[in-house]
Amino acid sequence: MPLSSSPADRAPDRAARRAPRRAAADRCPGAARLTQAADGYLARIRLPGGLVSAARLRTLARLAAELGDGRAELTARGNIQLRGLAADAGDRLTSALADAGLLPSLRHDRVRNIVASPLAGLDGPAGRDLTALVRALDAALCARPRLAELSGRFLFAIDDGRGDVAGLGADVVATVRPDGTVVNGLVTAEADAVDVMLACAAAFLDLNDEGTAWRIADLPAGAGRVRAAVAARLGLSPAPVPPVPPPSAVASAVSRPAGLVRYREEGMGGETEGRVRGNGAGSAVVLLAPLGRLTGDQLTWLADQSARPARITPWRSVVLPGLTDAAATLRAAAARGFGVDAASPWLRVTACAGRPGCAHALADVQADALSFGARWPARIVHVSGCARHCGRPAATEIDVTATSEGYQVAEV
What we know:
The protein is of the alpha+beta class. It contains eleven helices and 21 strands.
């Protein structure tokens, strides 16, 4: 599959002439721009909505083995990272990713940051599958050259009304419910949600005329100014914005499930196992990746189970929809090292790369993470190798940080 090469992408355009003038360079890794780490180079492959097909999982497993250290890291935005790459791996990597459909536009590589409710359409009649909306947003984003100016930190979220990804602090949030769609506090039709989301991103670029802001929150009164600009441009009305629950409440209530996905029968007074609403029959399961990291064999096994695209969640787990025998899948997953129920420490314990992968790290935090998790068996624990706290979930309750004098513990 060729990379996007429209005339706007080939020729110098307004986006190229208006390079952001932020205080520091945008160091967010991408697939086309590798970032150096202590264990080699790092590539971050964007998976809008966390969606990844079986064929693409196999491609990622192969690239991890051929070009990297054999593992894949799941990120807090539902993307995948490959580590241990050689300095000259870029061309082979981007070519293979483009062939697999994982890199539709080089220019937009680092701005395709889209999260979506991972269980949308799977666990209850009120929700609906968001796959088509995610893909439409990604395609429209890549079709607008100017939006390549967005930083790699800018985030879009599509929530099915349960509040899981709406609580992640995204710059542009669309909440899609049966009773209406709201984008950043503006009422719109679901069919127009993509245009309104991208209008919010464009309004941010207009307001960021000095080029110093990374995200909407970095602009003085940024959220209100963006909302007013889009409302005036598109003739939209404001909607009451419900309060966003604290991250810990979101995490415990809806966003960190594990094991079998249960279909909630609204008004029926119970739950039904083994039924899934949405396209395709079968059950769904949520598998927890140990410290958010998967081996090539685990990736290949996931591909073998995937009748429908898997969903990588912002909580570093994997949703497998459309299974014919969920119980057998859970048993096989447990044998391969996945967490498969609420008793798994991987539901609560996370850690950054740490030593030896990161030059900034002061400890091998991956080796120490389980012991810290055991100290607080009912709390969400993150272990950081340094004060930068890379990859720390918003729902963290116990923050453990390596220092030159040992670990420092703080309650969040």
